[in-house]
Amino acid sequence: MALAHAHTLLLAAGDDKTKSDGRTGSVIPGFSPSVPSVLQTPTGTILGWTAGVGLALAVLGGLSGWGCVAIGHNTERANLAARGKQAVVWSLISGVGIAVTSGLVTAFYTMATA
Known about the structure:
The protein is mostly helical. The protein contains three helices and no strands. The chain has helices at about 5-15, 35-75, 80-114. The model has no long low-confidence stretch (mean pLDDT about 75). This is Integral membrane protein. Keywords: Membrane, Transmembrane, Transmembrane helix.
């Protein structure tokens, strides 16, 4: 037993003929979302600065982590070296997260304006 009848599917799909008043025969209306042009430039600027500052901080965190690893190994402080290794790993993860998130948000805004 089918969950949807054939006439229900035809009604939802509609016909591609345009009526005299400009409407199409489809029940589902056409919709194209768009971001207001007033918001496009400030949003891009904010996303750019946020991603740039976040990635710069991730790089600084990685460099300081490598410094802690070097100091910890040379002075035989295993705790400092272990924390430095954790800092390097987490700075890599945060950098990838910032880059992916910023790229996704920018892509969504770009798709909405197309």
